[in-house]
Amino acid sequence: MTVLLPPSETKREGGDAARTLDLGALSFPELSDERAAVITAARSVSSEESTARTALKLGPRSVSERLRNLELDTAPTLPAIERYTGVLYDPLDAPGADDTTRRWWSDHVVVQSAMFGPIGAGDHIPAYRLSHDSRLGALRLAGHWPGPSARALARRAAGLVLDLRSEGYRALGPVPEAVTLRVVSVDGGGRRRALNHWNKTAKGRLTALLARTGADVGDTAGLLRWAGEHGVVVERTDDGWDLVAESLEPVHV
Questions:
Q1: Is 116 exposed, middle or buried (0-12, 13-18, 19+ CB in 10 A)?
Q2: What is the pLDDT of residues 170-207, one digit of tens each?
């Protein structure tokens, strides 16, 4: 089983100062050239505040984040699963996770980064500022990442691929055969509506529960079986797969 997550705009600062970025040590080392090209382009647009504001879509409060891209080679690193914060990653409580949970993440979770392409949950990365729709001059992320990322993911993925990425990040590494979950809320009359902001929380809770239960899921039948055992409502629909948010209240995680 492979779980694909999006990154987060917000990132935890700090890390291991003695362990700086090593592109060759990241998962999918065959992407080192593509990663180096993005880093070079990101460093270029980040060198001046005026260009960084437009390229990275920075506001007055976040404009200083451009400096992260100038220090990628020397900045301290953290495992990706700890680096990212926000509504999807907070339910994971990665800094407080035990070794068994961390091993599950390392074995099963891949994050689709705009800067580094697909990376493993345990890969050590610095803080940076780049989104799937950032503008890097002649280098277009929408043209740069999809082919190499898709091939790298296809070589790794064995069995079920559970795609929890947002649309913009799915486009950077397409996996056509993946199970893509739509997070929905069900009202008292049984009517369903797709969620926007809160869908990230549900995906975080789902990933946390998969890890903490040591889920061993090889196909869709196994996913449905695991979900039933843990009170999670996952259902096949006419146009895809639904995850009912209410079935992933914190008490279940």
A1: buried
A2: 999 999 999 999 999 887 777 888 877 689 999 999 99
